[in-house]
Amino acid sequence: MAKIHENTATELLLKLISGETTPVEVMAHYLERIGKLEPKIHALTFVNKDNAMKEAEKADKELKKPKGKKKPLLGIPLIVKECISTAGMQTTCCSKILQGYVPPYDATVVIRLKEAGAIIIGKSNMDEFAMGSSTERSCYGPTKNPWDFKKVPGGSSGGSGAAIAAREAPLALGSDTGGSIRCPASYCGVSGIKSTYGRVSRYGLVAYANSLEQIGPIATTARDCAMLLEIMAGKDPLDSTCVDMPVDQYSKGLQSVKGLKIGIPKEFFAAGLKDDVKSAIDKGIDLLKSLGATTTDVSLPSIKYSLPVYYLIAMCEASSNLARFDGLRYGARVDVPKGNFDTVYSKTRQEGFGPEVRRRIILGTYALSAGYYDMFYVKALKARTIIQDDFKKALAKVDVLIGPTMPTTAFDIGTKVDDPLTMYLEDVLTVPINLAGIPSMSVPVGFDKGGMPVGMQIMGNFFKEAQVLGVGMAIEDKLQFHKKIPPVGA
Ligand code: GLN
Questions:
Q1: 197 FRET partner, CA 20 to 30 A, in 67, 108, 317, 446?
Q2: CA nearest to 117, candidates 178, 75, 61
Q3: What is the CATH number of the domain that holds 200?
Q4: Would you state the pLDDT for residue 1?
């Protein structure tokens, strides 16, 4: 029989319902695995040991009740990223400025998942305030990639990506402002989806750049992502940007990909794409063709402006969002003897924020200041509309777009963290999607010569998550990548 962690969440649920295993057995198994693996991987910032076990005991009792509809995630352990609010559990964005902060409330998605029976097993590591692509910029130190401990897991939801790859839990939540779900999914060989802007409530997500970000699932399969997203998505009166539209049954998948029109955007295959990545993606596309899909070349001419446009908008929004961390309301405060508000405020922020967060606040504030506002911020907003139009035009002709998620595979820890521009370049294929607001997921399709996973990006039209996830499921049904577990020594 497969060990507990070798199951997908969907498989585990069936075994829980049939009584082949119990929530207590499942929780104990994952907690033990976390205990063994965390010293090597450091994907988690907090483990909910005692409470998770108590919740599992309650789930045991509930499952044994003979009657009544069973909750759809009853007894399944869930990891939550450090920037998503969890009542009574630290939510620090991996920043010194929020150390010690414990929110009094749950994010809407957390409430929905708990109500569905999921049990929070821990919180995951991330780049400070979700600014980064490697999880090296956390005040708790970096996370390692389970496929090779010398490499980064990607970021900013690298803790969630690495924890899922190492099977420290079957399900996790990440957030994606410019690629932070898809990048770690790609680098760690797991699946993750950023939904259409407005599909999932952001209430309780600590804001970095509100107009770009969504909370989303990271799991070993697209099928598990679908199951999670189905529960998370949908109208929330507490988030006015969250759209009131029915949620499709994502977990059903597609009948078949026969006749599906796939657009291949040539800009996703431009210079800088690693050969091994290209050949893995080509194989993935061939696989879909063998299942009856057709391909057409398409062009997104304006996405070459995506990086500067994204970084301008993201930094402007960050500078205004992060103004609330004043040392008075949340987390840490640096006391200045005989200081006034100004001195306490600036000292707290100087010592509380890391260098990348400070850089972005300064640049964002500059770009928003009088005289520069039109030149930078307004211009970036106009360019964003043009980029979005490129996607609309392409997606009027095809069902989905396919390309690589990342131009390379995971890189060595320490090689890019001191060079902000090189780090920003990592996001070249993920940020255009957030600017456009469309859904996109990363699924594993192969390995490079060094044995590091390659992720394929599937992008769809607004609110067509079912199609995106369906294509992901078609790939995983054939490749069975989720059966490959990194050799983490446990
Ligand atoms: N790497 C990008 C950034 O640093 C994206 C991060 C994210 O999606 N949160 O802004």
A1: 446
A2: 75
A3: 3.90.1300.10
A4: 61
